[in-house]
Amino acid sequence: MITTTTTSIEGRPATEYLGIVTGEAILGANVFRDMFANVRDFVGGRAGGYERGIGKARRIAIEEMEDEAKKLGADAVVGVDLDFEVINQMLMVTASGTAVRLG
């Protein structure tokens, strides 16, 4: 499955647009990780726990979006957009794009 933020794939024209596909991931915040992140922010350095959490949520959202595209018979998802939100101390990542068949 080709997944790209661009609206087209060079040398592979879209022959059919199958619709918008999405994937979501919501991960709860870990209290101990939050406390450690606050300490790291205070003394400097990177908050590795948060970085891993964001990476995991992003991968889940993209995989769900690709799975939805596969069910439609798509070869690719173009115009992918990733959104990150914090809701009630939970991280939500949404991936959306257009499922297409390629020539």
From TrEMBL:
Coiled coil: none annotated. It holds the Pfam family YbjQ_1. HAMAP family: UPF0145 (MF_00338). Belongs to the UPF0145 family. This is UPF0145 protein GZA08_08385.
